[in-house]
Amino acid sequence: xxxxxxxxxxxxxxxxxxxxxxxxxxxxxxxxxxxxxxxxxxxxxxxxxxxxxxxxxxxxxxxxxxxxxxxxxxxxxxxxxxxxxxxxxxxxxxxxxxxxxxxxxxxxxxxxxxxxxxxxxxxxxxxxxxxxxxxxxxxxxxxxxxxxxxxxxxxxxxxxxxxxxxxxxxxxxxxxxxxxxxxxxxxxxxxxxxxxxxxxxxxxxxxxxxxxxxxxxxxxxxxxxxxxxxxxxxxxxxxxxxxxxxxxxxxxxxxxxxxxxxxxxxxxxxxxxxxxxxxxxxxxxxxxxxxxxxxxxxxxxxxxxxxxxxxxxxxxxxxxxxxxxxxxxxxxxxxxxxxxxxxxxxxxxxxxxxxxxxxxxxxxxxxxxxxxxxxxxxxxxxxxxxxxxxxxxxxxxxxxxxxxxxxxxxxxxxxxxxxxxxxxxxxxxxxxxxxxxxxxxxxxxxxxxxxxxxxxxxxxxxxxxxxxxxxxxxxxxxxxxxxxxxxxxxxxxxxxxxxxxxxxxxxxxxxxxxxxxxxxxxxxxxxxxxxxxxxxxxxxxxxxxxxxxxxxxxxxxxxxxxxxxxx
Length: 567
Description:
Blueprint: H1 4-25, H2 47-60, H3 86-96, H4 98-108, H5 112-118, E1 124-135, H6 142-145, E2 148-161, E3 166-179, H7 185-188, H8 191-194, E4 201-213, H9 221-288, H10 294-328, H11 353-363, H12 365-387, E5 391-404, E6 419-429, H13 435-502, H14 508-543, H15 546-549, H16 554-558, H17 560-566
Antiparallel strand pairs: 1-2, 2-3, 3-4, 4-5, 5-6
Helix pairs in contact: 3-9, 5-9, 9-10, 9-12, 9-14, 11-13, 12-13, 13-14
């Protein structure tokens, strides 16, 4: 039997070395360099919700790290949902939105390819037992070898492949050999042959094997690039997610403001209905005293019906937009969320086309993503060129052996190297007419050229978007100023008309039309104000300043689930 004590002593030192080297070469995942998530109390929650959150926190600590607490919408003093600031809107989306939560989980898997690549360099321990027995017919050739041969081999080893392309293996073995040579009747009758009879013999050996790739993966040339490709692909997913989140946040802000427009349209349509109903009632009264014709009342009845349809359509549009917004925020669909919020009505002082263009070119996630793709393409090109080289490997093996009657004595001379066994190997392979490798190299260069063209196109697009966004802000601001002036003029016209109506100079219909114009002018001002703010937000998206402007650490959002798993 193999001596466990001796094998353990011989292998323990090498095992420690291999494990230590494995740990030292293991790469950290891209997310490990990111900031840890901080879980501050949500300022937008009511006091009761905060207390409930603190109470539930103790129970969720023992749950899965993927367990998630959703933010609740802030309430006013009457217990109804109050209007949200833009920062609160963004935090609600990033905390609650299901698309965000799905992508946060997807980021956790972003290092899969890298970990699989690095898994090839983990040490491997193996144990093997072999039993060999043979029985032959008594022949002249078996007089010296015996008719019955038994051989048992026990082997334990540890091996590791390094990123440098170096393969190292340490192995210990014990082989027990037994034969009935010299034990047959013929051998016993011959004093010379009877000397062949021997008890079982144990052969103990400790071997070390070393191999090194010289060309295709010379000292880890290919593997380093494979690992770097896997790392950059993980970072690429991060840039793509940031770009996706930016679009989601901006669209949510626009939808929130559009809800305000829809609410204003409901108010406007109701006022128009009231105005039309009042004129219809006045016409009915005049008809009763003979001052109006019946067809006039018919006309106003039709106008009231049309106004009622407009009210219902406006309410349906508002409710649809509200449900869509609540679904995006993953909130109760029955909440009476209002779109009212603070709006900017002045030109910002931090707009500079030249500086904003430079900032956008440095920080836009889509440009960063194309840069990552180009880096991956360059590495793939180098890898494809390297794969055209032949495989050339050199290796060697050294064993120290000893023999004994028992397994415990078969290793006595192994440390001295008294009975060494050595071997050297040189191996070379080159595939003929390998069109696959040539095609890979060609496609890698084509991909790099395509990405170069795409980057130039995206760069120009970003520059044009900055200029267009600046022009949109200017035009929207001018429209806002004109809407203010139109409202002032309409108010003056309406007040003057009312004054003249009181003196009998104008009809009720004229007053009604003036009031309709006033209501529509107010709606136009609201729409112009919101459109101006939308142009500002879109400009911030073009510059990629959405998250810094509203104090959002996007890395905390992206790596939220991954940070939880690390805790």
